[in-house]
Specification:
single chain; Immunoglobulin-like; Serine Threonine Protein Phosphatase 5, Tetratricopeptide repeat; 16 helices; 7 strands; ANK repeat; transmembrane helix; Ankyrin_rpt
C-alpha cells in the first residue's frame, strides 16, 4: 500500500510540475540594473508541491549571446526578489527561473523573460562636452532625448557656467545651434522679464565693471535677438520685443559682438536677425576688425552680400587692414559693385 501511495505521489508531482504556472516578473528597471520578482510563483509552488517541512530555493539565469548563447547563473537563494546589476544601458536581456528542492529535484524552467534596460540619463555636462567638441551627431542625439525639458523640469540653472566660464547658451551662440537655444529662449525671456530689473540692472548701475557688463548683456542680447525664430513661439517673440525696447539702452552696443560672431561662422540667418534688431554693422572689435572684414577674411560670400545690402561702410578700415581686406577678397573670389 505504501509503495502504491508513493508511486501516485510521484505521478501527482509530475502532473503538477507540468501545469504549475511558474513565471518571472519585472519589478523595477534601471539603466544598469533590473529588479526581478517571483513571489507569486514561489507561493503557488510551495502550496502545491511542498510539504510543510520542505524548503525550496530559486535559481535565475541570464542568457549570454556573446558566449554561444550559454546561460549564466546570476542568482541562487531563498528570497522572493533579486537585483541583477552590471548591465548595459538600453540593452535587451533574457532571464529564466526555476525552483529547486535539491540538486536533483527541480521544476521546469519558466518561459524566458525579455527585459530592456533604460537609456542612460543625460546631464548638462553631456551638452557642454558635445558643444565644445562640435560633435553634431551627439548634439542631435541629446536634443532628441528631450534633455532640455528634463533639465528645465528639475529647475536647472540655465546660466550655469562651465570651467571656462561659458554658459550653455553662450557656447551655443558661438557654434550657432539655433534649435536648442530657441527652446531655451522661452524660459530665458520669462526669467529676464521678472528678474532683470531687480538684479542685473541694479548691479550694473552700482558697479560699472566691463567684465560683468559684457557677460550679462551679451547673455541678454543672445537670448532676445539671436535665437527667437518666428516659427517657434509667438509668445516668446512678443516678450522679446517688449524686453528689447525696454533694454535697448543697454544692449545696443553689444549687438556688434554678436554680429561679429555671426560673420565669423557665416550664418546669414542670425546676422539678418541682428541687423533687423539694430546691430551696428560698422562696429569694430578689439583688433579693429569690422563684421565686413571678418566675413571677407573667412570667405563667406553670402554674409558679404547681406552686409552690402545693409549699406556697410567700406571705408571703415584702419591703415593696416586695407591691404589685408583687398587681398582676402581677391583670394576668395569675392567682388562687389
Amino acid at each position: 500500500m505504501d509503495k502504491y501511495r508513493s508511486k501516485n505521489n510521484i505521478y501527482l508531482s509530475i502532473y503538477l510540475s507540468i501545469y504549475l504556472s511558474i513565471y518571472l516578473s519585472i519589478y523595477l528597471i534601471y539603466h544598469h540594473s533590473v529588479e526581478l520578482n517571483w513571489a507569486d510563483s514561489l507561493l503557488e509552488y510551495k502550496y502545491t508541491m511542498l510539504t510543510s517541512s520542505e524548503k525550496v530555493y530559486t535559481c535565475i539565469q541570464k542568457l549570454v549571446p556573446e558566449e554561444d548563447d550559454t546561460w549564466l547563473t546570476v542568482y541562487t537563494g531563498y528570497g522572493e526578489s533579486a537585483v541583477v546589476n552590471d548591465l548595459k544601458p538600453n540593452t535587451e536581456y533574457i532571464f529564466r527561473l526555476r525552483f529547486q528542492r535539491s540538486e536533483t529535484s527541480f521544476s521546469e524552467w519558466c518561459d524566458p523573460l525579455k527585459v530592456v534596460t533604460e537609456k542612460e540619463p543625460l546631464y548638462g555636462d553631456n551638452l557642454h562636452k558635445a558643444i565644445r567638441l562640435k560633435d553634431l551627431a551627439e548634439i542631435e542625439s541629446i536634443l532628441k532625448s528631450g534633455i532640455q525639458r528634463l533639465l528645465l523640469s528639475y529647475n536647472a540653472n540655465i546660466g550655469f557656467k562651465d570651467d571656462s566660464g561659458k554658459t550653455p547658451i553662450f557656447s551655443l551662440s558661438i557654434y550657432l545651434f539655433i534649435s536648442f537655444c530657441s527652446y531655451l529662449s522661452i524660459y530665458l525671456s520669462i526669467y529676464l522679464s521678472i528678474y532683470l530689473s531687480i538684479s542685473a540692472r541694479s548691479y550694473l548701475a552700482q558697479y560699472v565693471h566691463i567684465f560683468v557688463s559684457i557677460y550679462i548683456l551679451l547673455f541678454i542680447c543672445i537670448c532676445l535677438f539671436i535665437y527667437i525664430i518666428p516659427m517657434y513661439s509667438y509668445l516668446s517673440i512678443y516678450l522679446s520685443i517688449f524686453l528689447s525696447i525696454y533694454l535697448s539702452q543697454f544692449v545696443h552696443v553689444y549687438l556688434s559682438i554678436s554680429i561679429s560672431i555671426s560673420s565669423t561662422h557665416g550664418n546669414r540667418q542670425v546676422a539678418l536677425t541682428l541687423l533687423r534688431c539694430g546691430a551696428n554693422i560698422n562696429a569694430k572689435d578689439h583688433d579693429g576688425k569690422t563684421s565686413l572684414m571678418v566675413a571677407v577674411i573667412n570667405g563667406h560670400q553670402q554674409m558679404l552680400e547681406l552686409l552690402l545690402e545693409y549699406n556697410v561702410d567700406l571705408s571703415v578700415v584702419n591703415a593696416n587692414m586695407v591691404k589685408l581686406l583687398e587681398n582676402a577678397m581677391v583670394k576668395n573670389g569675392i567682388r562687389y559693385y
